[in-house]
Amino acid sequence: MNSNDSTLNLLSDLIKFESVTPDSSDCQKYIENYLSALGFKTEYIKYGDVQNMISTLGTGAPCLIFVGHTDVVPPGDLSKWKYDPFKLTQDEGMLIGRGAADMKGGIACFMSAVKEYCSGKDEIRGSIKIVLTGDEEGDAVNGIRKIIDENVFSVGDLDYCLVGEPSSSDDIGDVIRNGRRGSITGHLTLHGIQGHVAYPEKAKNPIHLCSHVLSHLLKIEFDNGNEFFPPTSFQISNINAGDGVDNVIPGKIDLSFNVRYSTETNADEIKQKIINVIESEGSKYDIKWKHSGEPFLTTEKEFMNICKESIKKVTQLDTVVSTNGGTSDGRFVAKVCNQVIELGLTNRSIHKINESVREDDLEVLKNIYKNILDRVFSSQ
């Protein structure tokens, strides 16, 4: 694949950068050079070891911001990959490479769409901003979250936000996201008394205690959800106790859990309900919380309809609007922009060995993005 302006070759070039979180500087420089030729001005904002880029074309309203990330998850065991994960490879209609779906493919499609949209125009009515971070797959502390927390953008600056995460399920545009659930992770330690298994009366088994606590935690009804979100869910992700010795009652047990919650509740209410259950058992405990983000929801229809109409125009699909799935950087932008939509490639292979996208899907998504640009700036 030779370097040219096609979406395919853009993606091929982006995949070559081994931009495992947070190392994205070379990849972002490549994107800056491409956008500079279209008239974009780029600034870099670095927080800690994370580089973020903001590229802007035009001024004023309407302002459409495209949000994405140039970092990728590690490839894992290279021997299990069919091809070099950092060399985009065509294989029977599929494009294989780390980041092909999540989410360098989406970035390449938007870059290509912007180039087509700008072709033959001296200027645009309004502005396009492309904001990319190297910290989405990692802790997500010094990326989009930090940009918003540092008030780089204020309420009223951004009219529409398009997040290029892989939102589609089977076909491009079959699903878009107008919100995401909030996420809280808890790391709980229940303390018992270590002892010999032959003398349980002289010990206090934290594993047995944990079974009682878990049975009650799993019965908590946080809420019933609403028309946009399913009921809040509680899931155990890890349990560890003992040191592998058969005849010792351990002194403690560690467990981790995650709560994905809707707009019907909040982080403080969730934490209190969980603590109430733990304390009802009367045992000593320690707990640490990690709050990854509040839920967000776009209820305004204008940009949602623009996206749905563009998908219909290009694919003939009637898209499903959903809040399912994990978290994304859209949750941070939603603090300053009330119309946030996620629309990207399919997510069937993200984070997997041999991550891939259909080659034809690049053209489809690029055309959808181009149609969105046409509609947003249609009065020009």
Tell the overall outline: elongated
Query: Beta-strand level of the residues, as a percent range?
Result: 25-35%
Radius of gyration: 24 Å
Question: How can the largest sheet be summarized?
Answer: 6 strands, mixed
CATH topology annotation of the largest domain: Aminopeptidase
- Quaternary organisation of the protein chains: single chain
Q: Give the domain tally.
A: 2
Distance between the termini: 36 Å
CATH top level assignment of the largest domain: Alpha Beta
Based on the structure given, which CATH architecture of the largest domain is correct?
3-Layer(aba) Sandwich
Low-pLDDT runs of 5+ residues are: none
Helix fraction, binned, reads 25-40%
Strand arrangement across the biggest beta sheet: 1-2-6-3-7-18
Order of helices and strands: HHEEEEEHEHEEEEEHEEEHEEHEHEEH
Q: What class would the helix/strand composition place it in?
A: alpha+beta
Number of strands: 19
The whole-number mean of residue pLDDT values reads 94
Can you describe this structure?
By secondary structure, the protein is α+β, with helices and mostly antiparallel strands. The chain folds into two domains: 7-180 and 295-376, Aminopeptidase; 182-293, Alpha-Beta Plaits (2-Layer Sandwich). The protein is built from nine helices and 19 strands. It has helices spanning 7-15, 25-36, 104-118, 144-149, 206-217, 267-280, 302-315, 330-333, 359-376; strands at residues 41-47, 50-58, 63-69, 89-91, 94-96, 127-133, 160-163, 175-177, 179-180, 182-191, 195-196, 233-241, 248-249, 252-261, 285-293, 296-297, 320-322, 340-342, 356-358. The strands form six sheets. The chain has a six-stranded mixed sheet. It has a four-stranded antiparallel sheet with strand order 12-14-10-15. The chain has a three-stranded antiparallel sheet with strand order 4-5-19. β1 and β2 form a beta hairpin. α1 crosses α3 (104-118), α3 crosses α9 (359-376) and α7 (302-315) packs across α9. The protein starts with 6 loop residues before the first helix and ends with a helix.
